[in-house]
Model the fold of this input.
Amino acid sequence: QYGRVLNFKITNTILFYSSILSLFILIAGMIYLKNNLLNKLLLIYFMFYIFNAFICSSFSNTTERYTSRISWILPLLAFIAILLFIQKYRDSKSIQVHIEATPID
Done:
């Protein structure tokens, strides 16, 4: 198809680095947050990713464009993990303020 006229080198580079950063964020989220919902979402994502790779490799040649269809999900999950980090930080701050504001008799 078009004899490799389309160049996806820049897109693939951005996708690679954003995926690596997202993986680090998600690993930190799994270790620090210990959130069951986040862990279940990650399990479903990786099962879907493997299933997608199996289907695409069985019925067609392996190319970068197949993984780019679902590559946006990993940064989305990392964004969700960041929001959970922020929520946990705010909750811990509000508990700390409540403890400091409580008078001791």
Notes: Residues 73-101 form the longest helix (29 residues). Residues 21 and 75 are 8 Å apart (CA to CA). The two ends are 79 Å apart (CA to CA). The helical segments are 9-32, 36-59, 64-68, 73-101.
